[in-house]
Amino acid sequence: MASINVGGKDIPLDEEGYLENLNDWTPEVAEVLAKGEDVTLTSEHWEILNFLREYYEEYQIAPAVRVLTKAVGKRLGADKGNSKYLYSLFPYGPGKQACKYGGLPKPTGCV
Hints:
Layout: E1 3-6, E2 9-12, H1 27-35, H2 43-59, H3 65-76, H4 83-89, H5 94-101
Antiparallel strand pairs: 1-2
């Protein structure tokens, strides 16, 4: 089983790099996961990650990209609630990549 080391603690990951235990997530874990994919998290990334974590807490599901785009647009405005913006932050797929960094399960409907 794969894992990452954050602050001297081994954090187990599944075969796709998502956290095995959602309670292991911390902002430092997000930074390590992003760094592993050559991504430096900016305030724009964190805005989406925090939104996703709030969404998951409320609905207990990680949204597919279409739902994510619509929900972000509703909450953060049309300039951020569009695929172009989200893919500029998470080029490997805003749903999958953002959920991974946010410590959430893989979104439903993602391949």
